[in-house]
Amino acid sequence: MVVLIMLIGAGLVYWAVGQLYARYWNKGLSVEIRFSSDHAVKGDEIELIETVANRKYLPLPYIYVKFQTDKSLFFLGKDGSNAVSDKAYRNDVFSLMNYQQAVRRIPLRCTKRGIYRIRNVQMVSTGAFMGDVLAAESAQDAVITVYPKTADTDRLAVPFFQMMGTVERNKYLYEDHFMFRGIREYQSYDSMNQVNWTATAKSGQLMVNQYNESTCQQVCILLNVEPEGMIPKEKLSEESISIASGLAQMFIEQGIQVSLLSNARNGETGEEAVVYGASGLAHLNNVNTVLAGLDLSFSVREFKDIIKEMQNGVYGEDYRAVPGSTNMTYIMISQNRRENLKEGYRQLTGGISGNVSGGAGNGAGMWIVPYFIDEREEVFPAGMTDSMDFTAWEVDRNDG
Hints:
It is built from eight helices and 19 strands. With about 400 residues, it is an alpha/beta fold. The protein has three domains: about 30-145, Immunoglobulin-like, CATH 2.60.40.10; about 155-170 and about 215-395, Rossmann fold (3-Layer(aba) Sandwich); about 175-215, no CATH class.
């Protein structure tokens, strides 16, 4: 009889502990997933940080934290990534005593540009006596923007300086009255509104303010991801995006305003990429964020339609072809070279690419054509004659 009572008592204790554990195991349990940086560049190594906290008296012998990410975020170390299809799955185990917190830092490599999110994690426990499966979810807001790796724009040095030389001589310069440089003596060509009367009174002769010159020169990058033939070549489109990133960085570092128009679409909104002209580091980050968010799996419209909209003022007067204006330089990045696209580009640049002035266009232009090295004879056949002065950009299809 005593043995029976003991067995019943043990059974009740077993049942009660199991029920208490099942009811309270996830009370005071929190999981936070975040990246060590808000943004990175393709190829960078960063960390994903898991923080699991147990804020109660009940210990948790085993807690499994499960989540999925895009396989382009490749986890390093002995565990690596368990990739299935386009997703990578993590299943990390923690053991927490009462009121204990554990932090785990998982190194990973960003292998592809994009905007990656972790929206939720699943927490799984085996129960008090390893016989049950208890699960709960925790909403997350971990996001990282992986910028495209910038292309080596030094490859464009010769054609770039040939194109920009005249532009640099002809671009509009004006005195920026927010950029004070100093004071000098009055000259006959100075206007009276430049006179600094305080300095004049102190020196006994007319003195005028000096200001640094600023430029209203702008560069508009036209990013076309239409393939040349029927079959899309994603590697060439990705290279085009890298070229756009590299050009934006090069121009912004020189203080030139950069804008971007593309028929590629954002993977979350489905909208075409449009970045209006500005300069500075914040603007460069904005350009790269837009480029990072492009999804090449979306269908795109013909770029000639975007050029027509530019000419009709859809994107504002700055992008309309105005006769005699030289404040806008257009750089087309396009593997596609259809005749109707060439004609639209001629109207923007006032003639052939590389032309700086004249015609009905806005001035200078450059057309960069990415192509695979082994297809050079197909893209630029010997004896080719074309009114467009294309700038060739070789891409090795075997280069990872």
